[in-house]
Structure formats: C-alpha cells, structure tokens
Amino acid sequence: MLKIAVMVSGGGTNLQAIIDGIDNGTITNTQIVAVISNNKEAYALTRAKEHGIAALCISPKSYDTREAFNDALLNEVNKLQVDLIVLAGYLVKIPEAMVHAYSHRIINIHPSLIPSFCGVGFYGLHVHEAVLEKGVKITGATVHYVDEGMDTGEIIYQKAVEVCEGDTPEILQKRVMEQAEWKLLPAAINMIANKSK
Ligand code: GRF
C-alpha cells in the first residue's frame, strides 16, 4: 500500500481528483494519510475533512523564521511515515533538507509543458496568462519529480492541451485542469503505487 501525503495551498481540485481516483479504482494500492496546507483557508483542507482524511495546516506565519518553519514541516511529514509526497498546487518552496530526505519521493503537477512557462513566478493563473501572451497554440501539464530546483526534476508524464480562440486565462486553466492535470496526477500516483510505467 503506497502511503501518501498531499500538500496543497488552494482549492484542491487536484486533491479531489486523487480522492476520486482512489474511490473509483483508477488509483489502486494507495492511501492518503494526510493533507497538509500552508493556508488555513485552503478549501482543499475542507475537501480532506469531508473525506475523513487528516487535514493539517503548517504555516510559515506561525514561525519566527523560515528555518523554524522548514524544520517543523519536515518533522511533521516524517511523523506521517509516508512513501510519497504529492504537491498539488502547493505554493511554498520545499525545504532543501526535505528534498534530500525524500529524494525521488516527491512529485509535483505543473500546469504547462515543462520546460516552457515554468520556474519562478509561473504558478496558477500566471502560467496561462503567459501562454496566451506568447500566443502558443499548444500548452498542457507536466507531472515531475521534485529536485532542488523549481520545476526542474525528472519528468514523469506530460499531456498536451489545445489553446482555443478567445481563451481567457481562466477558461484555459480549466481546460488544462480537466484534460490534463486531473488525469496525469492520478496516473502518476497509480504508476508509482503499482511500479509500472
Ligand atoms: C493547479 O493549476 C496546478 O497545476 C497548480 O496549482 C493549481 C492548483 O489547483 N500547481 P488546485 O488547488 O488543485 O485546484
């Protein structure tokens, strides 16, 4: 059984896709042990609670220094004794000590085809704003392992999504979520849980 912790900061639609995938059998051999957010208002925490999943808020605002937060976060994650950490819209930088402690055991979903439109400042709607600004005709999403960089780890899966005439960032974000993110992240977790590719 693959034990996972899902780290979130916002609405939690990717978390919901994982919860639904486990419920409907597209993800097997997997248990969500806990959902962790830096944001106590994150609706993702409500989704977790509604599903009887432990929902933790560990916020940098609760600590005097970033180092103290980083230590507390790693300590809490270690207590969970999970096999895999899933970043699903988590907007806080993962401490280097945690990346090393969970080498090749942290994955992230990014709403573009890495290496395009990624790195510092490319998160949430900003990604889709940049895609529309550039005028590319194809975008998509990427699931990758997390390393010391920002959106630079080994790519696991990618899925292309068409940019349509008249798209707004919000319309494009929803299409990328529906057609790519909510399929790729469950597929990556299932692959890791069942060691196939
Ligand atoms: C998604 O667009 C995801 O690609 C990005 O952050 C957003 C999170 O959305 N990493 P949600 O909280 O899963 O709805």
By DSSP (H or I, 4+ residues per run), the number of helices equals 6
Largest sheet: 7 strands, mixed
Which regions have little confidence, pLDDT < 50, spanning 5+ residues?
A: none
- Shape summary: globular
Number of strands: 7
Order of strands in the sheet with the most strands? 3-2-1-4-5-6-7
Rg computed from alpha carbons, rounded to a whole number of angstroms: 16 Å
H and E order: EHEHEHEHEHEEH
Structural class: alpha/beta
Bound molecule kinds, no repeats: 5-O-phosphono-beta-D-ribofuranosylamine
Rounded mean pLDDT score: 97
- Secondary structure: helix percent: 25-40%
Strand content: 15-25%
Distance between the termini: 17 Å
Task: Walk me through what this model shows.
This protein has 197 residues and is α/β, with parallel strands linked by helices. It has 6 helices and 7 strands, in the order βαβαβαβαβαββα. It has a 7-stranded mixed sheet with strand order 3-2-1-4-5-6-7, covered by helices on one side. Helix 2 links the parallel strand 2 and strand 3. The longest helix is centred in the last third of the chain and has 25 residues. It is globular, with a radius of gyration of 16 Å. The two termini are 17 Å apart. It binds 5-O-phosphono-beta-D-ribofuranosylamine. The site of 5-O-phosphono-beta-D-ribofuranosylamine has 15 residues, from helix 1, strand 5 and helix 6. 5-O-phosphono-beta-D-ribofuranosylamine binds next to helix 1, strand 5 and helix 6.
